[in-house]
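Students often ask why inverse folding is considered easier than folding. One informal answer: many sequences map to the same fold, so there is more than one right answer. In these notes we will look at a single instance of the problem. The structure comes first.
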């Protein structure tokens, strides 16, 4: 729970007409009417890679640092989502810890943002049940995620009973199929106004918006807030090994991705073997030169403030005379320069004692629980599920 001082101050704020209040212990806004509510989540399925960093974690830290005092920010380690595929409990515990350390390493600050594990806030699962009573099976069956996790084609249908497809039906678990409903619950539980994500999450965000609209329509009240999606400029960082596919934690080829904890040597080695092409010189064209363009994109996203576009960066720094070896060297140096601090902060966060880290996570989870419980109570009451 909150410290006694914070609890007393919270009570004082609640009993007065104060609309906005900054918790002295945690500094984040506990306003009843925050300006923006920013929520996002990441699965604890290993140390984040460059796609997670450029597409999500770094934009989250930027949003945090540029936030107004009455903005509220919540970032969650979505461990209930992670268990939609089989997980080893010991590894999952380790990955949760590593993700918390990654949050701190990229500059997320528990004094400014609520950083918590999803499974520490039971209201997520409860709201998911409520929302699943409004979620269309037809809509869910069109979502791409369960198909890609099961390596099924994009036109796969869970209701297809033809003999050749029957074998897939038992493999598809309800949790994986209803994954987007839990994601909608994560977002809608906090009256989130903005969700910063990479491009692959756009379909889930649209689903959450539509679910909120359907729900509000059913009860004739604006109980849920349809959120806006903020797609990061680095919306789709591609694999180093297959640059027509996005960089992903689940790719069995470890050379396909750079982790935020990779050493200088590892970064250079992975960039050196990144798939490019045999065309002379350096030029930017995502269609005809996906490998080279991905490397330029990565470099550009680390230096967005210096160049108007990846094309501009290419024009200013490279040309038809530049060898791919020089390009790769520069890209690897840029990544290493930017990740050096992150990896140092990661290792110091990981050396924090288990108790210290779990205390920090619990304090944040208390704040999330307080907001979630109060919002869920209002929703349930409006639905006829409360006594008052
Ligand atoms: P997850 O864990 O797969 O990824 C976390 C974030 O990283 C972004 N990302 C990328 N961005 C650019 N290029 C890439 N190659 C790349 N790979 C991943 C993702 O877009 C994401 O923003 N379903 C979500 C987690 C979630 C969530 C939420 C997100 C659960 N509840 C509520 C937002 C709001 C997921 O699996 O992300």
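Output (designed amino acids):
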């Amino acid at each position: 729970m909150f410290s006694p001082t914070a609890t007393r101050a919270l009570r004082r704020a609640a009993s007065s007409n104060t609309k906005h209040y900054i918790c002295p212990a945690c500094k984040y806004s506990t306003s009843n009417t925050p300006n923006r509510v920013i929520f996002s989540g990441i699965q604890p399925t290993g140390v984040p890679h460059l796609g997670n960093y450029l597409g999500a974690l770094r934009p989250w830290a930027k949003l945090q640092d540029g936030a107004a005092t009455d903005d509220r920010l919540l970032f969650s380690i979505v461990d209930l989502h992670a268990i939609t595929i089989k997980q080893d409990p010991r590894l999952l515990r380790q990955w949760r810890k590593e993700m918390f350390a990654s949050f701190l390493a990229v500059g997320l600050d528990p004094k400014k943002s609520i950083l918590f594990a999803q499974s520490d806030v039971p209201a997520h699962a409860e709201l998911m049940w409520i929302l699943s009573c409004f979620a269309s099976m037809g809509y869910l069956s069109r979502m791409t995620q369960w198909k890609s996790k099961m390596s099924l084609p994009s036109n796969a249908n869970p209701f297809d009973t033809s003999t050749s497809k029957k074998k897939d039906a038992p493999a598809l678990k309800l949790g994986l199929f209803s994954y987007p409903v839990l994601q909608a619950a994560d977002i809608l539980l906090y009256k989130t106004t903005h969700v910063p994500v990479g491009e692959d999450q756009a379909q889930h965000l649209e689903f959450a918006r539509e679910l909120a609209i359907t729900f509000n329509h059913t009860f004739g009240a604006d109980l849920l807030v349809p959120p806006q999606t903020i797609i990061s400029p680095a919306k789709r960082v591609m694999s180093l090994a297959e640059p027509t596919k996005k960089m992903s934690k689940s790719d069995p080829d470890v050379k396909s991705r750079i982790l935020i904890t990779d050493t200088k040597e590892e970064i250079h080695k992975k960039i050196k073997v990144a798939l490019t092409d045999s065309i002379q010189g350096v030029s930017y064209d995502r269609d005809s030169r996906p490998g080279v363009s991905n490397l330029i994109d990565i470099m550009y996203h680390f230096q967005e403030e210096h160049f108007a576009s990846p094309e501009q960066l290419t024009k200013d720094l490279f040309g038809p005379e530049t060898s791919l070896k020089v390009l790769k060297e520069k890209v690897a140096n840029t990544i290493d320069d930017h990740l050096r601090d992150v990896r140092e902060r990661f290792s110091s966060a990981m050396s924090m004692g288990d108790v210290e880290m779990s205390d920090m996570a619990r304090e944040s989870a208390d704040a999330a629980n307080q907001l979630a419980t109060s919002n869920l109570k209002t929703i349930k009451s409006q639905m006829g599920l409360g006594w008052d």
